[in-house]
Each structure stands twice: as structure tokens, then as C-alpha cells.
Design brief:
This protein is of the alpha+beta class. It folds into 4 domains: 1-129, Beta Polymerase, domain 2 (2-Layer Sandwich), CATH 3.30.460; 135-235, Hydrophobic Seed Protein; 241-315, no CATH class; 320-376, Serum Albumin, Chain A, Domain 1 (Orthogonal Bundle). 47% of the residues lie in helices and 11% in strands. The protein has 18 helices and 11 strands. α11 (239-249) packs across α14. It starts with a helix and ends with a helix. The protein binds adenosine-5'-triphosphate (ATP) and magnesium ion.
Length: 377
């Protein structure tokens, strides 16, 4: 807040108007710490850049410049309106406007369409404060029209309901029900971003009920899988928990959600967490083979009361790298060439060592190996 106020003062001193806008005003009025600060101004990006020594061009064509002050980034956006989102990614065109009010009018919900000046005076043309008090999410203007401009707003309404523990205004909800099918045209990256936020927000179940009641689930990549009973889910800091929970509870596999375009890392995390959660029992080999994070999610899913990190640290070796021998040793001892056989022997050694049946000692491993090798030969 302090740095945003500074940015506003500098802009005002130079003769421009400037306000804190959007989520930061909402969170401030709710007594929460806003996690990012947006400032709206009638200054153009070029004019903003002239006034601050450190800025980053984050979206000049949309009128946005990031101002860096004491390590904090404050987005300064020129007052603008936007047209339809025909590619459902970004507005076809943004138009710069002169007044704050026109800028606030393009925003999605009344609680997100307030501004605050440097003295913390609130500018609230659409009744956002009252809706905050009533704990309602209500579209600015005609909800149907607003959802036709950008269908993602329907999912944002559902997301904010859980994030803030608010209800969705009946008129706004009815418009979502009416226009639900439009959501299928929105870029999946934007959809996934909102669903991730639903899965980490404090009232996932509330959002998921709205998702189902609004009819949106039917038009999303995971479809009816999302319609399950979420009452047993305790939201976690990472969305992967929620995705894995949904698949685990319904005996489904990762491909059921892959339409959301997960990163490879996230996909692996979810797949391995599911695999581990579904194991009948966990032993030292389980702790050796899976990553800590994967086991943490798996433990949550299967209700296991273990601390994966401790279990992993207690193992004689943490990975192949810790093994006192390697493939070259094996080739020297046997005079054989590289091949699949090495991998199999290394894994046998890892198992023995992990289970405490063989010390991780070069000579001891060699003795064991030569013994076994000749017995099999
Ligand atoms: P949070 O950051 O807590 O998720 P936020 O309200 O800051 O919530 P952002 O997505 O960061 O949400 O957007 C900032 C502001 O921009 C919103 O408060 C809203 O005024 C406006 N906004 C964002 N996305 C849209 C949209 N799709 N349509 C209309 N206005 C939007
Ligand atoms: Mg924000």
C-alpha cells in the first residue's frame, strides 16, 4: 500500500489522476493484505515511464507498465475499456479512455470495480461496498452481455465465491447458466488458471457447487468428474493436491484431465502421487522411488500418517548417485560390455541396500555381486 501510494503521489504531482483499483481495493476493504497492487491512471505508458527510474514493459499495448519501488512491483495501467474477446484470450482492441468511471465499468464484478485514492477514499460507482457487505458476487452491468464479451468471467465468479466465501448473485448466476456453453471457447490455459485457484482457495467445495449448479462443468475438459462431492477435501497450498484428489476419489487416471494442458512437471507429480497412493503398502523402496512431494500428496490422498521427508532421510541411500559402485565397476568386474544387464544389477543392489540387507560399501557390494553373478552364470 505504501509504495502504491507513493506511485500515486508522483503521478498526481505531475498533473495526472491515479488510483488504486481492482482486487487490492476489495482486499483492503475486507481487511486482507492485497497480494498485488494495481494502479489506474490517465497517464499513458510513455508518460508513466518518464516519471519513474525503474519500470518494466509488461504490456504496453494494453496500457500497462510495471513500476519498481523498493523491490515491489506496482502495475500502472492507463484508463481503458476493452471490446469483445473473440479469441477468448485477450480483448480484440483496448481503447484508452479519459475517465476512471469508464475504466471501472469494464471490470467484471462490482467488488472488483472500485478505486481508492491516495487518502484511501473509495470511489464505488456500482455498489461494490454494499456487495462486499452482503458478500455477493455481482456482474457490473448486464451479466449476460458481460459474459458474452469474455466468457471466462463466468468461471471467475465461481472462483471468487470460494476465494472470498461469497455467494453469487441470483441474476448473475442465472446468466451463467444461460451462457455456460460459451466457456468451451475460452483458452484452456485461462480455464486451468482459474481452476487451480479454486483448488487452493479456502472454500473449494463452495466453488465446486457453483461450478456444478451453473452447468459450467459440462463444458470443461474434465466434465462431470468435477461434479463429485468435494466436502471431504481440505484445500492445500498446491493445486496438484486437488487434481490428484479428484482423480483418486473417482478411480480415474490423468488423461481424464489432460485437456487442461498441464506442464510436464505437474503431470508427473499428479501421476506419481496417484500411483503411490494406490499402492497397497509402503516400504523403504516406496520412499526411495518416489519424490518427497509425490509422497506428500499420496499420503494426503490415502490418509497415511507419515512424513515422507523423514522417511527418505532415514534411508541408507537417497538415489543412484549415492551408490558406492557404478556401471563402469560392473563392466570391469565382469569384462562385459555396456547393456541392459547393468541396469538390472544396479537396481538389485539399490533394493538390497535400501532394505538394509547390504551395506553401501564398494568392497562389500563387489563381493556380493561377484558371488551372485557367478551363481547366475
Ligand atoms: P486476485 O488477484 O486476488 O485473484 P483480482 O481481483 O486482483 O483477484 P486479477 O485477475 O488480478 O483479479 O485482476 C485484477 C482486476 O482486473 C480485477 O479486480 C478486475 O477489476 C479486472 N479484471 C481481471 N480480469 C477481468 C476480466 N476477465 N474481465 C473484466 N475485468 C477483469
Ligand atoms: Mg490480482
Amino acid at each position: 500500500m505504501k509504495n502504491a501510494a507513493k506511485v500515486i503521489r508522483v503521478l498526481e504531482k505531475a498533473g495526472y489522476e491515479a488510483y488504486i483499483v481492482g482486487g487490492a481495493v476489495r482486499d483492503y476493504l475486507l481487511g486482507k493484505t492485497p497480494h498485488d497492487m494495481d494502479v489506474a491512471s490517465n497517464a499513458s505508458p510513455e508518460q508513466v515511464k518518464k516519471l519513474f527510474s525503474r519500470t518494466v514493459d509488461t504490456g504496453i499495448e494494453h496500457g500497462t507498465v510495471l513500476v519498481l519501488l523498493e523491490g515491489e512491483g506496482i502495475e500502472v495501467t492507463t484508463f481503458r475499456t476493452e471490446g469483445a474477446y473473440s479469441d477468448m484470450r485477450r480483448p480484440d482492441k483496448v481503447e484508452f479512455v479519459q475517465s476512471l468511471e469508464e475504466d471501472l465499468k469494464r471490470r467484471d464484478f462490482t467488488i472488483n470495480a472500485m478505486a481508492m485514492d491516495e487518502e484511501l477514499r473509495v470511489i464505488d460507482p456500482f455498489g461494490g461496498r454494499e456487495d462486499l457487505e452482503q458478500r455477493v458476487i455481482r456482474a457490473v452491468g448486464n451479466p449476460g452481455e458481460r459474459f458474452q464479451e469474455d466468457a471466462l468471467r463466468m468461471l471467475r465468479a465461481v472462483r471468487f465465491s470460494g476465494q472470498l466465501d461469497f455467494s453469487v448473485d441470483p441474476g448473475t448466476l442465472a446468466a451463467i447458466q444461460q451462457h455456460a456453453s460459451l466457456i468451451s471457447a475460452v483458452a484452456v490455459e485461462r480455464l486451468k488458471n482459474e481452476l487451480d485457484k479454486i483448488l487452493i482457495n479456502p472454500r473449494t467445495e463452495r466453488s465446486m457447487c457453483y461450478l456444478k449448479d451453473s452447468g459450467l462443468t459440462r463444458h470443461l475438459p474434465a466434465g462431470v468428474l468435477l461434479e463429485m462431492d468435494w466436502s471431504g477435501y481440505e484445500p492445500q497450498a498446491q493445486a496438484a493436491y486437488g487434481w490428484a484428489y479428484m482423480l483418486y476419489r473417482q478411480g480415474a487416471e490423468f488423461p481424464a484431465v489432460k485437456g487442461f494442458k498441464f506442464s510436464n512437471g505437474e503431470r508427473r507429480l499428479i501421476e506419481n502421487a496417484l500411483k503411490a497412493a494406490r499402492l497397497e503398502r509402503w516400504d523403504a523402496w516406496t520412499f526411495y522411488c518416489f519424490e518427497c512431494k509425490e509422497l506428500e500428496i499420496a499420503a494426503y490422498l490415502s490418509g497415511r500418517n507419515v512424513t515422507p521427508q523423514q522417511e527418505k532421510e532415514a534411508l541408507p541411500i537417497q538415489s543412484k548417485r549415492d551408490l558406492a559402485v557404478n556401471g563402469i565397476d560392473l563392466m570391469q568386474w565382469t569384462g562385459k560390455r555396456q547393456g541392459q544387464w547393468i541396469r538390472q544389477w544396479i537396481e538389485s543392489m539399490e533394493r538390497k541396500i535400501v532394505f538394509g540387507q547390504l551395506p553401501n560399501d564398494h568392497e562389500k557390494i563387489k563381493d556380493w555381486f561377484l558371488d551372485e553373478y557367478h551363481r547366475h552364470a
